[in-house]
Amino acid sequence: MSALTPGQRSAAAIAAATAINLPFGTIYAFSVFLKPMESMLGISRADMTLIFGLAACSLTAGMNLAPFLFRRLSPFTLIAMAGAFSAVGLALTARASGLFELMVGYGLLFGLGGGVAFIVVQQGVNQTVQTKTGLVNGYVIGLYPLGAMIGAPLFGWAIVAYGLRPTLAGLAATVLGASLLSAALLRLADIRMQDSTPGVAVDDNPRWAIFARLFSVFFLAAAAGLTVMSQAAGIVQAYGGQTMLALGATTFITGAIAAARIGGGWMVDRFAVPRVAVFAHLFSLAGAILLSVWPGPWVAIPALTMIGMGYGFISGTTAGAIAQYWHKNSFGRVASQLYIAWCIAAVSLPVLAGWLYDRTQGYGTAVLIAAAGNVLGVIIAWGLPDGRGRSASRA
User: Fold this and answer.
1) What is the pLDDT of residue 305?
2) Packing angle, helices 297-325 and 364-381, rounded to 10
C-alpha cells in the first residue's frame, strides 16, 4: 500500500496525467507541421490531413486497448511501454522520406501509444478523486490542447532554428522522458485501476440510449473542432493571414480550447448536462456564422476560437457526464468507446476540408458544414438526462 494520504494519491495521479498528456497533446499542434512537411516531402494538404486522421484513429485504438491492458499490466508498465512505443514512432517520423513512413511513425505508432497512456491516467485519476469530478476530468482532457498551446510556438521556433527533423527528434525524447516520469508518479501513488467495491448494475436500454446520444453530440462538435485544431494555421493563412499571425493564432486557439475543456467540466458540476451541451454547440455555431458572414484573417481568429471552444466545452462536458452516468470502474471503458466518435470526426470533416482546400484554396464550404453539424448537435443534446447526483445509471 502507498504511504501517501488519499489527497496526496489524488495529487500524484493528476501530476502523472499532467506529465504525460502535455507532450502527447502536441498532436493538436499538427497544423504547424503542414507547410514544412508538404515542402520537404512534396505531399499535398489532403495527404497531411490523412496523416492526422490516421493518428486520431490509432489514438482511439490505443484508448480502446487500454481497458483490456490495465486489467493485466501495472500502470507503471503500461505508461512506460506506451511512451517508448510513441517515441519510436516520432523518431521514425523524424527520419521519414515519404508519406508511408509518416503514416507508420506519426499516424500509427505515436497515436497508439498516446491513446493507451491517455486512458490509463484518466482511469487512475477517477479511481482517486471523489468530488468535483467534472472539473478534474475537464482539466485532464484540457491538457491536450494546453500541450499544443505550449508546443506550437516551440515547434515554430525550433523548425526555423534547427529544422523539422531535429524538432521531431526532440519531441520523441520529450515524450519518452515524460512517460517515465508519469509512470513513476503512478507507482508512487500505488494506483489501482479497479475499485474493489462492486458497481451498481443497470438496465442496458437507458444506458445505451444515453451513450448513443452523447456519442452523437460529441462527434458533431469534434468534427468542427478538430478541423480547426488540425489546420488552424492553414485556415488563417487561407483567409489572408501571414505565417507569424497564423502561428500566434494556433497558440491562442489551442489555449482557449484547453480553458474551454476545463470550463465544460466545471459547468457540468453545476448545471444540467443538456444545457451545457446546447450552449457549447450554439457557441460554436456563432463562430461559424461569424466567419461565413465576414471572412478575413482578423475575423478568422476569434471565429475559429469560438468553433474550437465549442468543441472544448463539449469535451469537458462529455468527460464530466461519463463520471455522472456511469460507475468509476467503467470510466475508462466508456470513455474509450465514446472517443471512437473523436476518431470518426478526425477522418470526416478535417479530411474533407483538406480535400476542398486543395481544389478551391479556401475553407468556406467546410465552415458551413460545421455550422450545420452544430445545429444538429443542439437538437440531439436536448434529450440528454441531467445526470447530477445520479447513481442508478452506473454500469
Assistant:
1) 93
2) 30
Q: Report residue 162: phi and psi, to 5°.
A: -125, -20
This prediction's pTM:
0.78
CA pair distance 73, 114, nearest whole angstrom: 17
Alpha carbon distance 363, 387 (integer Å): 38
Burial of 205 (0-12, 13-18, 19+ CB in 10 A): exposed
**pLDDT computed for residue 203 by the predictor:** 40
Of 186, 374, 203, nearest to 288 (Cα)? 374
Average pLDDT per block of 10 residues along the chain, 395 residues long: 73 92 88 83 81 87 89 88 95 90 93 93 83 82 86 89 94 96 90 60 59 94 87 81 76 86 90 94 95 88 93 92 82 86 86 83 88 95 76 41
CA dihedral 311, 316, 319, 320 (to 10 degrees): -140
What is the sign, positive or negative, of the torsion defined by CA atoms of 301, 306, 307, 311? Answer: positive
Helix (H, G, I), strand (E, B) or coil at 136: helix
CB count in 10 Å sphere of residue 293 = 9
* DSSP 8-state assignment for residue 107: I
Q: 6-381, which class in CATH?
A: mainly alpha
**SS3 of residue 362 by DSSP:** coil
Percentages helix, strand, coil for the chain (3-state, rounded to 5) are 80, 0, 20
pLDDT confidence of residue 163: 92
Are the C-beta atoms of 184 and 377 separated by less than 8 Å?
no
Closest by CA to 24, choosing from 122, 131, 125, is 122
CA–CA separation, 91 and 93 (whole Å): 5
Do 223 and 348 contact (CB within 8 A), yes or no?
yes
